[in-house]
Structures are given as C-alpha cells and as structure tokens.
C-alpha cells in the first residue's frame, strides 16, 4: 500500500477464541435451528437410513452367498461386524453432502450475508456448522449401523458366523463408524467453505470418499489406508485386516483431515468479502 | 448513527467507493442516492462488516460493525430480499436470526405481525413473491429493535400499496429517533421519503444535503420556460441575442433555458411580440439528479437520459 493510504481498516473478524461463551452458545443454537428447520435435513436422514441399511443388507447377502467358495483362510478373517455395516460409506456420502450444503446453500443464495451480519465471528460460525452437522450425523449413522448389524447377523446366522451386539468390539465398531461419518461431515463443511458451490463441493466430497475406493487401487497399499473412504471402512472393523488401519488410528486420520479442511475454510471465509 | 471516514473499496484497478466520508444521523430518513453501480451496495456491505475496506473506516453506533455485541440489536439491514434459502418457513428464518442474537421468539411473532406476514408464517419462503420476501427482509431488520436501520433498494418489487406502506414505515422509524438509511436509484422516490440525501456517483459522495436544499440548489440554474408566440422566429432570435438557449418544439412552441419568465416577457413586449403561452416547466428532481451525476457516471447519457427511469417521475 502506498504511503498516502489511510490505514484504519476495521478489525479482522474476531477469532473464535475471543468470543464469549454466551455468543458461542447463541451461534450454536442458531445453526442448529437452521439445520433442523430445513425439511431437506430430515429427508436426508431418512434417505441415509434407507440407503445405508439397504446397502448393508445387500453386501451381507452377497458375502454369505460366496461363503462356500471361500477358502478356510478367508473364512477365518471374515469380519461379520464390518460385513454388516457397509452402509457407513453411504452415510458418509449422504450426510457429508448435507454438511456441504449447510455452507454452500447460503453462499449460492446470498444468505451467507445475513448469517455473517447476524454473527460476524465467521470462523466460529463455520465451526458451529461443523459441530451441528456432526452432531446430526452421529445418531443417524449409529441407527443405520445398528439396523445393518442386526439384519446382517440374521443373514450370517445361516452359516453360524453371526456375532451378537455384546461380542467384544461390536459396540465400538458401531460407535466408531458413527464418529467417522461425523468427521466426514466436518470435512464436508470445510470443503463447502472452500469451494462454496454446491455441485463442486459435493462432487469433491463424493470423490474423496468413494473415489478413494477406485483410485486407491492404484496407490501403494501403505498409502491407500490413509484415504478418507478407506479410513471410514476401517472404523467399523473388529478383526485386524491387512490394508486397513486400526479403528482408532482411522479416526485419528479422519480427525486430521477434518481439522485441516475446517481450518483452511475458516481462513478463507474470514478474509474474503462475503 | 453511521460514520464513514475516507471509506474506500478497490477491486483491482477499479475504485468502487472512493474516499467516502459521511455521517448518517438519527431521527431522520437519509436517502442514499446514486445510479446503479455507483457504489451504494458496496458501501452498505462495508458498513455491515461484510466487505473489508481497502482503506478508511466506518463505524456504526461508534464501533466497527464486527465489534458490536449482538449486532442485530444495534443494526437491522435488508440488502437483498431474495438472498434466502427457500426451504425454511418465514417463522423459521426469523427464528434462527433471533437465536443468533439472543432475541426471544415472541419478537418473531411480533415482527411477522408488523409486516403483515402472520398468515404465511409457516409457509416455505421459496414460494414467496418478491414483495413478500421484501416484507420478510424488513421483519428480519426490525427483529432486534435496532437503533440503526439500513435498506438497500427496499421498494424494488413492491406494489403501489407496498411502496406507500414502506414509505410510512421508514418515516415512523425515523420519527422514533432511529437512524434510517435507505438506498435507491430513483430520485423521485427519495424526494418523497428522505429528509436528507447522500448522493453517490462513481464511488464518490457528490452531495450531502437536506432533500429540500438539494432540490432547490439543483433546480434553480436550469429553469426551463415553455413559450408560444405569434411570431416565433422573431422571439427566438430576440431571446438568442440575450444569451438564452432556445429549443423549438414540433408544435410551434419553444423551450427556453437561461432566462426566467419575467425576462422573456420583457423581451417580448420590447419587440412587440405577442405571447400566446408562457409556462415555467421547472426542473424535475429526476433531471436535477441526472444533471448532477451525468459527468460522474460510467455509462453516459445514452443510458441515463433514457426514459425508463424518468417515466416513473
């Protein structure tokens, strides 16, 4: 800037750390009101359950139909828990897209200006969107996991490989799967803040989740396990399997992605004209 | 109260707002007048902390907007009525705004009542007409019962009833002692609503005056007189000799600029010319405004002197 420029620019948006607890609570409440008053939110939840449970059942049926063709070793590593919760991938894509839309729908309509006028603490607004989307994704995914598990075990009972919900690791897998999808929702909010267009951001998220499964085939085995989609799958496993991270490590990986996406989006949103 | 000091916004080499310094005071309606693209909306976005100025500053109630606690309780703004996610109901849209600033839900019902949307409170906003959206936007601006109110082109899309309603609303808000800042590109609209005018053209504030003062100052120099005479050619020649500008009309009359009616009468009687008609046309506000902004506007006369906006006077 030239020397003649008077520099008394207004303060940059307040950092999340500097706003009071009351204001944080109000922002969270406002974002939750936004999420729950949009009818499409509830349609999306219903869609997640229908598609997620349906996919889990379909995969369970296909696995059991190949039981006779499996080698003894394949049968030994068969994981009846993760084999009945494949729907977690569907939940990641559908609920992740819902999270994307909480940001992009406001940018595409221009309502983001109302949002930032009412709540100038932009990074915290984004964080509140991430928190509410994640909080919404958790119970929906948990329910889908539970239903998928119960239906899957009935299918596996035919080959006497079913496990019960009390089996070590089963509950953890259900919960971790829901946490993984919640983290994907946070990634979705981050991508939404970075890309701002619904179509572009939703496609990017879907590629990150599902594309990882196909593109991942061409990556060295050691890298593949770090892809978000693969890590989401790893979160619902009970048996240790080659090419997948341990469930806890998978969540750590997803949390790192979520933190990067949200931080990058916060920086972008805070310093850009709305 | 809104105070701007050398407020400037540049986009690359384009200057959208150029060193604007002004104060919008409480207790009156201040019209923010300028042709489309003059910098009105950019200025308003900077006031709301949405766009960061390239230099200069703007304070609302003594603070930069982003430092206001519960901003909706200090400033209510309507920028673009259509900028709203369509899936929610009107009441839900106001509900999240209320939540964001710790405003009770009872106030939502009140403002819906105030703007006449109570009957459609539960309807999806996506089904609303532009006029209904404007009313919802005004409800949102009033939600926090703020001291300062700002509306960007609020009459766009309103029917005549709606325009009268909004005009009275603005005036009553100002009468309550609030600061009311209202943008428009229509001079005639401003003349009927605003007590004070802030005129912007090509990003620069070119006038800051009371509406009456602005009208008087800008109308006088270019009073036009319509004259019809029995000897039009003689009169035209005589008037031209006295330095007047004479424009001949197809119906035989002429429009004279540069001399007032008394002087024209004197010229006529001195030369024994019989006048059939002598009428002061004055200058419409719209013309005063065009006059003022003509040299300041990016797109010259071709667009500005067009009839689309004038015909509304």
Please, could you describe this protein's structure?
The complex is a heterodimer of chains A (274) and B (313). Chain A has 274 residues and is mainly alpha-helical. Chain A has eleven helices and no strands. Chain A has helices at 21-36, 39-65, 72-77, 87-109, 112-118, 122-156, 170-195, 198-215, 221-224, 228-235, 247-271. Chain B has 313 residues and is an alpha/beta fold. Chain B folds into two domains: 2-216, Rossmann fold (3-Layer(aba) Sandwich), CATH 3.40.50; 224-280, Alpha-Beta Plaits. Helix content of chain B is 35%, strand content 26%. Chain B has twelve helices and 13 strands. Chain B has helices at 40-47, 90-100, 105-114, 130-142, 160-175, 187-193, 211-219, 232-241, 261-270, 285-293, 301-304, 307-310; strands spanning 2-11, 14-24, 28-33, 55-60, 75-78, 148-152, 179-184, 196-201, 204-210, 224-229, 245-248, 254-257, 275-280. Chain B is elongated. Chain B starts with a strand and ends with a helix. Mean pLDDT of chain B is 88; it is low at 297-313. Chain A binds chain B through residues 1, 5-14, 22-23, 26-27, 29-31, 33-34, 37-40, 105-106, 109-111, 113-114, 116-120, 271, 273-274, and chain B through 5-6, 45, 48-58, 64-72, 75, 77, 79-80, 82-89, 92, 95-97, 99-102, 140.
């Amino acid at each position: 800037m030239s020397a003649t420029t008077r520099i008394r620019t207004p303060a940059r948006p307040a950092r999340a750390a500097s706003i009071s607890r009351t204001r944080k609570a109000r922002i969270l409440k406002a974002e939750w009101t936004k999420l729950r008053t949009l009818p499409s939110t509830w349609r999306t939840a219903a869609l997640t359950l229908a598609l997620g449970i349906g996919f889990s059942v379909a995969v369970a049926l296909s696995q059991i139909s190949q039981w006779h063709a499996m080698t003894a070793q394949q049968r030994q590593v068969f994981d009846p828990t993760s084999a009945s919760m494949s729907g977690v991938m569907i939940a990641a894509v559908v609920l992740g897209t819902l999270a994307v839309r909480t940001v992009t729908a406001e940018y595409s309509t221009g309502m983001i200006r109302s949002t930032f006028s009412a709540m100038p603490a932009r990074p915290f607004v984004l964080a509140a969107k991430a928190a509410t989307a994640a909080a919404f994704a958790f119970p929906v995914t948990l329910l889908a996991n539970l239903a998928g598990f119960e239906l899957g075990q009935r299918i596996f009972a035919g080959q006497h490989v079913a496990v019960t919900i009390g089996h070590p690791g089963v509950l953890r897998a259900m919960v971790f799967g829901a946490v993984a999808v919640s983290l994907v929702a946070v990634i979705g909010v981050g991508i939404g803040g970075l890309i701002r267009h619904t179509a572009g951001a939703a496609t990017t998220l879907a590629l990150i989740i599902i594309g990882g499964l196909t593109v991942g085939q061409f990556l060295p085995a050691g890298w593949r396990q770090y892809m978000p989609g693969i890590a989401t799958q790893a979160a619902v496993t009970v048996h240790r399997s080659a090419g997948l991270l341990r469930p806890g490590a998978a969540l750590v990986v997803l949390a790192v992605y979520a933190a990067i996406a949200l931080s990058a989006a916060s920086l972008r949103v805070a310093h850009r004209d709305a | 109260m809104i105070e701007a000091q050398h407020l400037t916004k540049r986009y690359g080499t384009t200057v959208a707002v150029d060193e604007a310094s002004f104060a919008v005071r409480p207790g009156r309606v201040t019209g923010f007048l300028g042709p489309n693209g003059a910098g009105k909306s950019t200025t308003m976005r900077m006031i709301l902390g949405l766009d960061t100025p390239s230099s200069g500053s703007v304070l609302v109630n003594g603070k930069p907007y982003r430092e206001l606690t519960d901003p909706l309780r200090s400033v209510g703004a309507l920028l673009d009525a259509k900028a709203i996610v369509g899936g929610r109901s009107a009441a839900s849209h106001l509900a999240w705004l209320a939540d964001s600033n710790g405003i009770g839900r009872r106030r939502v019902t009140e403002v819906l009542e105030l703007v006449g949307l109570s009957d459609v409170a539960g309807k999806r906003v996506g089904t609303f007409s532009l006029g209904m959206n404007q009313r919802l936007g005004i409800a949102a601006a009033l939600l926090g019962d703020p001291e300062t109110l700002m509306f960007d082109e609020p009459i766009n899309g309103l029917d005549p009833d709606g325009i009268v309603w909004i005009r009275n609303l603005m005036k009553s808000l100002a009468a309550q002692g609030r600061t009311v800042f209202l943008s428009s590109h229509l001079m005639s609209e401003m003349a009927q609503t605003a007590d004070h005018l802030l005129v912007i053209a090509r990003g620069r504030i070119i006038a800051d005056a009371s509406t009456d003062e602005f009208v008087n100052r800008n109308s006088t120099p270019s009073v036009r007189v319509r004259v019809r005479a029995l000897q039009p050619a003689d009169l035209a020649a005589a008037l031209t000799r006295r330095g007047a500008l004479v424009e001949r009309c197809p119906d035989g009359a002429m429009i004279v600029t540069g001399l007032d009616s008394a002087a024209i009468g004197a010229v006529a009687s001195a030369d024994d010319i019989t006048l059939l008609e002598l009428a002061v046309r004055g200058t419409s506000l719209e013309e005063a405004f065009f006059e003022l902004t003509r040299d300041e506007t990016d797109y010259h006369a071709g667009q500005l002197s067009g009839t689309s906006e004038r015909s509304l006077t």
